[in-house]
Amino acid sequence: METKILNALKWSGLGFLEPLIKLIQGKEKDKNIRLVLRQIVVPVLSVFIFLGVCNFGASYLYNKERDIKIEKTRSVQGDAAAAQMAECIDSSDLSCKPNSLPSPADVKQGAISLWNDHKMISEKKSAFKEKTAAINKQRKEQGLKAITYTGRPSFVDQIITSLKTVFAGFLLAAFFAIPVGIVLGLSETLRSSINWIIQILKPVSPVVWLLLVSMVVKTVMANSDSDKAFIISFISVGFCSMWATLVNTTMGVSSVNPDYINVSKVLRLSVFSNIFKVILPASIPMIFTGLRITLSVAWMVLIAIELLAQSPGLGSFVWEEFQNGANDSNAKIIVAMFVIGFIGFMLDRVMMFIQKLISFEAK
Q: Is 163:343 a contact under the CB 8 Å cutoff?
């Protein structure tokens, strides 16, 4: 039972808790105390140190911005106005609060505000759905499109939109890069003849890919009612991120142990049997390394692409908050930054878990 628990922790990325479990059980106390200090206590302390540094930096910038604002008021309107401005700032009135780097407390408040906003919008959606249920039923019977809610999306809705976009782009990248990588890996002639295209296109900026994809999609789907912003976004994400998978798949296939290939020849395996029973299993570690990089790059470039494509995801949220310039906008942007980072981390963990599940080397 204990072994199963420890293995489950390792597979889920929580292996750092193993010394704590063993310490609770009274095993190797001195060794596990050192490991708990190093793997758990020190990281937790680093979190508090990070929050302290952030709070100090936010306080310093706030006070500096406060002094600049008061001095500017004094130089333009005089001492009396400057005193009123100082009093207004110190009273925590949002109308005159300096718009600087938010403190951890401000970020927490921003997160609460976003969650409350999500609940309010969800209630509006539910009310709208109930209100239009009968009408939409009639429209469906008539073969017409249902009336949908067109109000402002919440922060959670935008996260979901971004996840849909990145997964669609990731699947597109994998669908294209893995088969092409296998073909290139099997043929040295093709690999040497096409390599120049890969090396030229690989470093192309996401902005350029977005423009190229927009030209094609807007022309091809000129008369379509489909969500062009979503289609442009996920195709651009796919083209930006597929190169790591393409290169790693090519390298993985081309570097398969020659003994495996010789055995497949002796057994007279067909081309497809050779690929699926010999080459792919031997190439899985390299392919998954490419897929992990592809997913990370896809999530990273997604924000810029959504911003430019006007897709209602996290990229659009960050830009709108920046343009908004409200007193809590900076805090909400920091919340979005941590959400983006956390989701990116979790996506990488998921890819590692899947790799362990299907890789024969891990079994």
A: yes
